[in-house]
Amino acid sequence: MQYFDATQTADRLDYPVLIPALRSGMAAEASVPPRQHYSLDPGGEATLLVMPAWNREFLGVKLVDVFPGNARHGLPALSSVYVLADGTTGQHLALVDGGELTRRRTVATAALGTSLLAPEDARVHLIVGTGHIGGAVYDAYRAVRPGIATTLVADPHNPAGAEALAERLTRRGADAAAVEDLPSAVGRADIVTTATLAREPVLRDEWIRPGTHLDLIGSFRPEMHEVEPSLLGRAMVFVDNDVARTEAGEIATALARRVLTEGDIAATLPELCARPAPRPRTDGEITVFKTVGTGLTDLIAAVTVFAGRDPA
Ligand SMILES: NC(=O)c1ccc[n+]([C@@H]2O[C@H](COP(=O)([O-])OP(=O)(O)OC[C@H]3O[C@@H](n4cnc5c(N)ncnc54)[C@H](O)[C@@H]3O)[C@@H](O)[C@H]2O)c1
């Protein structure tokens, strides 16, 4: 069995390879049972998450250990690995670094949303959130919208993080700038990507102008919101999978307030990927793609790492 550490995993998950792999893999038949959470101590702090998925060729499971108390020992709270096996024999093939796998498949999924839904002539991209995930967004979007000329970076919770990311991108030759005036940045942007831990919306409904596309990565619990739920009432809404209806705060709250009905969710990512061509946009429409993550994108990314291995 081969082991791929974080560097090897990153090397094999180039976005121009990973994003098309996600598009074809999401359209194919697969089984993705709900992820399981296990509390490991009486206080319920330490958690084991188990995320399985399989298709005709491969099966795999992501194991994520969350030990929030680790900061006391100077250790990261999260430790994650992906175990990949042959789907016809069950023989184990590879262990893949789960942190890098998750980071890359997450921003690649958001970029896939943009490639299928956002205006083709988008010129200005706003990234909100500059953590582990937000820091990887730029590279993934370059693979699907190379025409983006300007990248704006905001982090209302950590403005220094926005300065640092904009500086890193500028050093790499991008036209990037940190912004603090969010309403005006949102007004300039053709595409907005959010990757924050916000509970209260960082983006107000009234700031979003017609014609904008948004990819929302951050919220994964009903109490977390990156945009005001009312926005969803005037947007075309897409989700990476149906779990987003209950797990993503924006969607769950919009449904509970009846701003959105179940029937208003236009399509899931597998449905979008199964179409022969990206859906045409209508003039002035706002599109929202909400991703909460699915075990199928982990499986596809792990297979991509394994398939790109050095010859034995
Ligand atoms: N959709 C998916 O598949 C997927 C996968 C991995 C992570 N995520 C989610 O993406 C989000 C970001 O993850 P990360 O690993 O980059 O985290 P991180 O801790 O590295 O970064 C968090 C970011 O959110 C900002 N932030 C923190 N608290 C905030 C608040 N109250 N209001 C506004 N901004 C706030 C921080 O300044 C930072 O920019 C998390 O919610 C995470 O669960 C989603």
What does this structure look like?
- The chain has 312 residues and is an alpha/beta fold.
- 31% of the residues lie in helices and 23% in strands.
- The chain has an eight-stranded parallel β-sheet with strand order 9-8-7-10-11-14-12-13, sandwiched between helices. The protein has a six-stranded mixed β-sheet with strand order 1-6-5-4-3-2.
- Strand 7 (124-128), helix 4 and strand 8 (150-154) form a beta-alpha-beta unit.
- Helix 1 packs parallel to helix 3, helix 2 packs across helix 10 and helix 3 crosses helix 10 (295-307).
- The longest helix has 20 residues, at 98-117.
- It is globular and about 50 Å long.
- It starts with a strand and ends in a 5-residue tail after the last helix.
- Residues 102, 106, 129-134, 155-158, 161, 195-199, 202, 217-218, 220, 291-293 line the site of nicotinamide-adenine-dinucleotide.
Percent range for β-strand residues: 15-25%
Q: Tell me the span between the first and last alpha carbons.
A: 11 Å
**Largest β sheet strand count, sense and barrel closure:** 8 strands, parallel
Q: Share of helix among residues?
A: 25-40%
Strand order across the biggest sheet? 9-8-7-10-11-14-12-13
* Overall mean confidence score, pLDDT: 95
Beta-strand segment tally: 14
Bound molecules: nicotinamide-adenine-dinucleotide
